[in-house]
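Dear colleague,

As promised, here are the two records you asked about, laid out in our usual form so they can be pasted straight into your sheet.

NAME FIELD: protein one
SEQUENCE, THEN STRUCTURE:
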Amino acid sequence: MTDRQDSPSGEEKSGKGGRKWLLIETFTWPDGDVSIVNWGGRPRAFLPVTSALTRSTVARVSQAIATVAETREPLSMCSQGYRVEAVPHLVRDRLHGIQFWCGRDDDPVPEKPLVAAWRVDFTTKTALGSPEWAEMADLPPEERGQAVSLATVFAQATTDHRESVALQRIVAARAGETNQGFWTIKRRDGTQWQSHWSHGTIEEQIDGETHRIGLGLSQKVQEPEPVVLEHRILEASTNPDEYQAIVALDDLTLIRWVHGTTPPNMIAWRRIPHEPEPAVHPDDRPAMLAMARGLTKSPTHGSLRLRGVDGQWVRIDARADPVALDNTISAALVRFTIADQT
């Protein structure tokens, strides 16, 4: 599998001979286009396959979708030196999407991520999951294979900061809408896992009535949930002793202070005449770089010294969270307090 030059660079490979699984939604197929919603464990915001993959790979995707839509069974096929693996995800015999892998016929097939499909009837406020969803969510026997109330689903999920968007699209669903998010799913045994979900809304005739239906896919992911720049959310979490700033990860420089944060008057950050150049103490740069690298796995913490307006060093205690910019993690939300200077 090879991407075009304008697709996410370097995403298709995972070690020697390794190629990654794609999760491709088919919510409007065959009338509409299909798109990638997860690429090798990294969420994608409905990335069109036609712009992300080579023409030959797009053809293999199209053939795989058509085949599994008809057979309702996983596909394993070798042709002209290539091997294709495709796994359908259906609810009530409707194809929501496929997991797709393509490589040379002698390439090892990587472990397939856990994926499940589900549908929500926004008209009746009920939800139904695929057998894979029942297993991943550890549903009790009486809830498997039948529609349950949305309240039952929400009781099992810890929603993210975009819950308001999800709720809005439940109570006022419109055909053609799409949505994505990260929710934490709690199992009966006390364990939990993070789900990156994608859904598209369609209209369906049921007993002579038009229902608005959300077709969805969820994939178990390991990456931390990115913080999205919603001013209301960030302002609500600010306390008088805490400062919040958005920092670029490529050069670890301040992008802006978060709305609601009054910049600390003892730290140099303006880059103006008569004020020292902003800087982190040289001895603390390794700790700062370690915090930045650690954001690919989880939020990070650290104690750093920043240049003060008087030229001295001011110690801060900081926490950093990854921030989603243009659907990639390229910045960090840094929350910090000024340590006792005595």
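NAME FIELD: protein two
SEQUENCE, THEN STRUCTURE:
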Amino acid sequence: MNLSLLGAYMLAVLTLLLTPGPVVALVTGTAARYGGRRAFTTLIGTNGASLVLIALAVLMLAGIVSLSALFLSLLGIAGSLFIGWGAVASLRKRSETEDIKEKAVNGEGGGIVRGFVTGIANPKDILFFVSFFPQFIAVTGDFTASIMTLSLVWIVFDFTVLSLYIVMVKSWVPERHGRRIEICSSFFLLAVSFFGVIYNARELVLR
């Protein structure tokens, strides 16, 4: 096993996960507003999305799947629009009491589905797994062993870092500030959506 390459991969994954992005914003906003249980459910969805992106990267490395730049740009636009839609929906909620009651009935506010779609649409993760992940495939001399090692490192780091975010929010942020945290997270997601649409649309025009 190439330990120096593995160490570089671990550092890259840790840096990516610690950098604020759509997934971190969604998970922390959900934790602050709807509690740790709902946030961990959302985390499961985002982690599942990561596994799908890893599988896609593996298929590309094996030569089974080939994604065009046009498709990636369209996927980026669709994902950005979904993230923006979720952010706007959160910002349009009514009073805190009514909102929590509505969430209890409808099962909204984070959750596996929203976590999964946000993770799949996350520009950082798409870029990482499509462009950056393949550079570490030589971590072992066997293709399957390399994929298993890199995948396991990602899953452990992803779950650990996001769990720490949830614990910190629940431990250090008073419950009365939950709605404010959710609003800040929603504005951040809205900004990510806006710039994601502009960037991918620009890429389409340039092509």
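A couple of things worth noting about protein two: The chain is about 80% helix and 0% strand. The CA atoms of residues 50 and 104 lie 27 Å apart.

Best,
R.
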